[in-house]
Amino acid sequence: MIFWGGLTLLLAVGLLYLYRGFAVEERHTRLLKDDQQRLMEENTKLRAEVDTLQTELSQTGSMLKNREQILRETTESLQQVKAQNDQADQLADQQNHARADLQDQLAKAVQAIDPAPPADSFKIWIEGDHVSVRLANSLLFDGSDTVLNAKGADLLKKLGAALKTAAPDQEIVIDGYTDSTPAPAAATATTPAPKPPNLWDVSARRASAVVRVLADAGISPDRLIARGLGASHPVAPNDGPDHLKNRRIEIVVRPLSMGAPTASVSTPVTTAEATSP
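Now predict its structure.
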């Protein structure tokens, strides 16, 4: 009995230890499975993150390539703009030098005829892309004539030679001006005073006389324009003591415009036909 009791007890204890071993192993196995599942989930999550990062990296690479392309195109555009600006600056410098040279040559042409012309009788200036010459009527015409005097014709020949050389591709506009007070015509007992001449017509005839000399100097008529502007655009008050300054010729040298009209030159008038300023 004692033997069987001890054997039973021994078997019970062995079974207990065996059960406890199985329980521990099962728990360990379950923990391993849980860890494996967790690791698999984390691995899946990490793979998803890696895929996302790779997609973002690919997109970033594409964006960088696009930005590099944009940067190259922008750089090329800036270089083209700079080259164009440099060319424009160079052309502007050349044009400025050409205008300054023309101004100098025109001044020498006037001084070659009259080394000491009366004060305010002529002016040469540059304004924008224009070179302008202002000549008092006293340098070109005698009194109220619309026919050039000999000295005036010689002066214009000199100016024409300078314009032909220094402004070969420019448009030349000749504007004639008067003041607003035509010279009165004398009346007799039997003949009433004639109507004062039209100031616009007088200024146009004087401008046309200048055009003829410039054309004879070799300047193409296609580049010449004559305009009679009468008493408009005065440089001094027409009712003041300096009103005679308004009797003038202005020559404007400017870039050739598209479709520039050919100068219209009328028949010369005689001194008797024009008794205006």
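The CA atoms of residues 226 and 264 lie 7 Å apart.
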